[in-house]
C-alpha cells in the first residue's frame, strides 16, 4: 500500500529507487484514487488511457540506472490549457471541445524528457478566466475540503487534484492568481515563477504580458523540483529570460508587510487573524519584519482589469470557428463568426472580449489602456524600491477562504475582487508563492503569500521553505 497522504516527489523518488514499488504501482495508486474520488470532486476532464504505458517506459529507464532523475515516473496532472502533442486540449471551452494539439509546449517537452507520467487534463475556468472554475463549460470542480464550496480558479482542477490525492503534483497557469488562489482554497503550495522564467510556448494564451506556467504541489521543495525542470530561455518565446539572468538582490533576512493593505475593507476576519499569525511565524523563522510603503497598490486590481481584458480581446480573436474551433454556420462569414463565438464561448469570456475591445477603442484608449500601463510602471517602481530593503513581501493570497458554489457566480465584480492580493505579482512580473498557513474554525484551508523581486525565484523559494518549516 502506498500512502498517498504523506507522499511528496522527493519521497516517491526515494521509494522508487529503493524498489519499494514500481512506477506502474505508483501510477495505479493515483488512477485508483481518481476512480474513487473524482466522481464527486470533478478535477479531471480526461484521464489519459496510456498512463500505464507511460509508467512502464519510466520504469525501464529507472531499471536502466537513471536513479538521479527526481521526476522519473512521477505522476503529474495538467491544466487543460497546456499543449501535449496528439492529445486533446480544450481550455475548458466548447469552442475547442475536440481540438487536438499539434505540438508539445516547451515546459511539457522538458517534463516529457524527464520521464514524468501525465495522468490527464484538469478542469479550469474557460480560457483561464475566473476564480472558481464555475466558468468551465464542463461543470465546476468542487473543493475536496468541503464539496459545497469552490476549488478556486482558474486552475481549480489542478489544486483540487493535489488536495484530493488524485495527483502527486500538477501544473497550472497564473495570469492574475490562477495558481495561487486555488492553492489557497485547497491547501496546496502554488508557485508562479517570474514572468519569463518558464516558456509560454504551448500555453493557450490568455493575457500574454501576465501569463506564467507553474507547479501546484504538496511542498515548497516539490514546487522547486518541477520549476527547475521547466525553467529556461526558449527560442519559441521571446519573452523568456536568458538562463544566466540573475536578479540583483542579496538575502537580507527581512520581510515586508503592509498593514494598511490587510486592514482595508472586505477582508475576512479569519484571513486577517491568520495573516498576523503568519507574521509571527516569519519572525520565528529568523526574519525581521518591517512595514513597507506601497502607496499605489490599491490601483492593482483596476489596472489588471483593464490590461487583462485588453490582451484577452486580442488573443481570443483567433477563435472564430475558421482558424480555430468548431464552426456554427451562419448566412455569411461575419454571421459565421458571430454565431460561433456567441454559441461556443461562455459569458465571462465574451464579457472580457467586450471590455477589452472597449478599453482599446479609439477615443477610450488613452483614458483606460494608456493610463493602466502608466500605473503598471508606477506600481513596478514602488516594488523595486521595496525589494532594495526586503527579501519578499508577505500578504494573504485571498481576501476570503473558499466560498460556496454559486455565491459569486452571477456577480462578476465580486468574483474580480477575489483577485485583490494576487494580480500585483503578475503586473510587476514578480515570482509569488502561496503556502498553507492554517485552517479556519470551520476547517477550510488558509494561506500566506510571499511576493519576491523580479528574477529572484530562488530567494523567494528559500523564504517559502523557511516559512513552511515552522509548521
Ligand atoms: N481570477 C483572475 C481572472 O479571472 C485570474 C485568472 C488567471 O490567473 N488565469 O482574471
Distance between the termini: 27 Å
Q: Helix tally? A: 16
* Helix proportion range: 25-40%
N to C succession of SSEs: HHEHEHEEEHEHEEHEHHEHHHHEHHEEH
Just name the CATH architecture of the domain at 4-230.
Alpha-Beta Complex
Query: CATH superfamily of the domain at 4-230, please?
Result: Amidase signature (AS) domain
Instruction: Provide the list of bound ligands, each named once.
Output: glutamine
Written description of the protein model:
- The longest helix is centred in the last third of the chain and has 21 residues, at 366-386.
- The two termini are 27 Å apart.
- The protein has helices at 9-17, 23-41, 51-63, 106-114, 156-163, 180-186, 220-230, 259-263, 269-284, 300-315, 333-344, 347-360, 366-386, 412-417, 423-428, 457-468, and strands at 44-47, 75-79, 117-122, 142-143, 146-150, 169-174, 189-192, 212-217, 254-257, 288-291, 392-396, 432-439, 445-452.
- With 471 residues, it is α/β, with parallel strands linked by helices.
- Helix 2 (23-41) runs antiparallel to helix 3 (51-63), helix 5 (156-163) packs parallel to helix 6 (180-186) and helix 10 (300-315) crosses helix 12 (347-360).
- It contains 16 helices and 13 strands.
- The model has no long low-confidence stretch (mean pLDDT 97).
- It has a domain at 4-230: Amidase signature (AS) domain (Amidase signature (AS) enzymes, Alpha-Beta Complex), CATH 3.90.1300.10.
- Strand 2 (75-79), helix 4 (106-114) and strand 3 (117-122) form a beta-alpha-beta unit.
- Strands 1-3-2-6-8-7-12-13-11-9-10 form an eleven-stranded mixed beta sheet, sandwiched between helices. It has a two-stranded antiparallel ribbon with strand order 4-5.
- 39% of the residues lie in helices and 14% in strands.
Amino acid at each position: 500500500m502506498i500512502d498517498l497522504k504523506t507522499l511528496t516527489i522527493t519521497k516517491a523518488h526515494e521509494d522508487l529507487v529503493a524498489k519499494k514499488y514500481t512506477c506502474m504501482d505508483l501510477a495505479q495508486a493515483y488512477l485508483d484514487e481518481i476512480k474513487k474520488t473524482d466522481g464527486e470532486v470533478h478535477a479531471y476532464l480526461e484521464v489519459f488511457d496510456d498512463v500505464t504505458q507511460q509508467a512502464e517506459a519510466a520504469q525501464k529507464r529507472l531499471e536502466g540506472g537513471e536513479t538521479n532523475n527526481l521526476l522519473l515516473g512521477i505522476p503529474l496532472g495538467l491544466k487543460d490549457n497546456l499543449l501535449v502533442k496528439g492529445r486533446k486540449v480544450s481550455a475548458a471551452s466548447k469552442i475547442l471541445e475536440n481540438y487536438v494539439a499539434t505540438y508539445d509546449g516547451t515546459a511539457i517537452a522538458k517534463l516529457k524528457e524527464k520521464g514524468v507520467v501525465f495522468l490527464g487534463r484538469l478542469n479550469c475556468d474557460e480560457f483561464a478566466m475566473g476564480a472558481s472554475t464555475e466558468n468551465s463549460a464542463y461543470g465546476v470542480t468542487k473543493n475536496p475540503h468541503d464539496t459545497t464550496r469552490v476549488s478556486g480558479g482558474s486552475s481549480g482542477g489542478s489544486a483540487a487534484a493535489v488536495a484530493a490525492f488524485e495527483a502527486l503534483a500538477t501544473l497550472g497557469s497564473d495570469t492574475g492568481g490562477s495558481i495561487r488562489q486555488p492553492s489557497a482554497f485547497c491547501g496546496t503550495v502554488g508557485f508562479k515563477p517570474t514572468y519569463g522564467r518558464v516558456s509560454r510556448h504551448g500555453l493557450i494564451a490568455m493575457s500574454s504580458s501576465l501569463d506564467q506556467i507553474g507547479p501546484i504541489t504538496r511542498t515548497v521543495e516539490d514546487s522547486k523540483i518541477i520549476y527547475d525542470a521547466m525553467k529556461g530561455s526558449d527560442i519559441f518565446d521571446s519573452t523568456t529570460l536568458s538562463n544566466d539572468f540573475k536578479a540583483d538582490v542579496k538575502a537580507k533576512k527581512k520581510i515586508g508587510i503592509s498593514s494598511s493593505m490587510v486592514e482595508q475593507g472586505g477582508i475576512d476576519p479569519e484571513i486577517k487573524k491568520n495573516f498576523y499569525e503568519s507574521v509571527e511565524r516569519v519572525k520565528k523563522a529568523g526574519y525581521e519584519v518591517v512595514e513597507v510603503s506601497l502607496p499605489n497598490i490599491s490601483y492593482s486590481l483596476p489596472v489588471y482589469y483593464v490590461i487583462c481584458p485588453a490582451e484577452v480581446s486580442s488573443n481570443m480573436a483567433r477563435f472564430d470557428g475558421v482558424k480555430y474551433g468548431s464552426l456554427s454556420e451562419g448566412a455569411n462569414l461575419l454571421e459565421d463568426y458571430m454565431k460561433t463565438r456567441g454559441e461556443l464561448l461562455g459569458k465571462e469570456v465574451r464579457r472580457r472580449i467586450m471590455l477589452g475591445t472597449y478599453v482599446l477603442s479609439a477615443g477610450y484608449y488613452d483614458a483606460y489602456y494608456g493610463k493602466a500601463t502608466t500605473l503598471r510602471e508606477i506600481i513596478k517602481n514602488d516594488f523595486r524600491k521595496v525589494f532594495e530593503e526586503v527579501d519578499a513581501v508577505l500578504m494573504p493570497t485571498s481576501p476570503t477562504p473558499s466560498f460556496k458554489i454559486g455565491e459569486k457566480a452571477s456577480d462578476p465584480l465580486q468574483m474580480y475582487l477575489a483577485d485583490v492580493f494576487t494580480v500585483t505579482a503578475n503586473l510587476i512580473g514578480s515570482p509569488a508563492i502561496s503556502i498553507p498557513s492554517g485552517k479556519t474554525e470551520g476547517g477550510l484551508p488558509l494561506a500566506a503569500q510571499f511576493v519576491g523581486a523580479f528574477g529572484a525565484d530562488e530567494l523567494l523559494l528559500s523564504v517559502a521553505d523557511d516559512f513552511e518549516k515552522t509548521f
